[in-house]
Amino acid sequence: MKIGMNLLLWTDRPNPGEHGQLLTQIRDWGFEGVEFPVDGLAAADAAAFAVKLDELGLGCTAISALDAQVADPASREPRLRSGAVEMLKRAIDNTRTLGAEVLCGPLFQGLGRFSGRGPEADEWAYAVETLRKAGEYARQAGVTLALEPLNRIEMYMVNTLRDGAHFVREVDLPNVGLLADTHHGNIEENDVALAWREAAPYLRHVHISENNRGVPGSGHAVPAEIFGVLQEIGYNKWVTIEAFNQSVPGLISRLHLWRAYAEHPEDAARLGIQYIRRFVKAGSERRR
Fold first, then answer.
1. pLDDT higher at 203 or 246
2. Could you list the residue range(s) of the whole structural domain that residue 282 is in?
3. Which GO molecular function annotations are given, in alphabetical order (predicted)?
4. pTM of the full predicted structure?
5. Which class for 76: exposed (0-12), middle (13-18), buried (19 or more C-beta within 10 A)?
6. pLDDT band at 244 (very low <50, low <70, confident <90, very high)
7. 24, 235, 270, 276 — which has fewest CB within 10 A?
8. Domain harbouring 62, CATH code
9. Domain count of the fold of the chain
């Protein structure tokens, strides 16, 4: 397993001038890679970050989310479905420019839209069709899409890994799989470990995110058991910390971040990787 750190702890609009040194700090904490929010990332900035990553010997992944007002794979409005395809193509281009092989995120639907019901059959079909188009473009670029089920407060299309696996099977592309997130699983799955085992054939990415979105290990959503499951199923891809604080204004109301979750903003990274490495090391020693 490779351990990464999501930049959303610090920014949703990374730029090389302001955040280049942050990559050095992330490496020095012991991370092997960085996850970049790529929506709105300029192609030139993605190229500059790629150079910096190479200098530091860091890998990377990318993350995207869709605003339902302009891009929604599940919408009945053709312009919003087309908007989703175009936005995802730009995100895929940035992912490739960064040198990443994985673009993840809650891409089943545009965020911020609720119908007051669960997904209708036509919405599901529209989403599958839209993600297949994006997935085919991603395959040509050598990029894997890791689709993330969210909890029912944030999304109504897909809330569990089982439903996500159903969706991925309908898309039916080898480079389209799932992201398992501990925060959302803690809310929606009856048995997180069982859900991850069942979803093993489709897992392409993992987010380690605490129940309160703070420091991994400070709550109850990231137990030792989940690392055991990853080792049991032979997962050898990215395990990325996704944590948040109140320093990114664009995320506060969207994620309902009304208070600080750590004494220092960097604690989620600095202490989180220590927590993860403890269990990864213990699992490796047991297998010897």
1. 203
2. 2-287
3. isomerase activity
4. 0.94
5. exposed
6. confident
7. 24
8. 3.20.20.150
9. 1
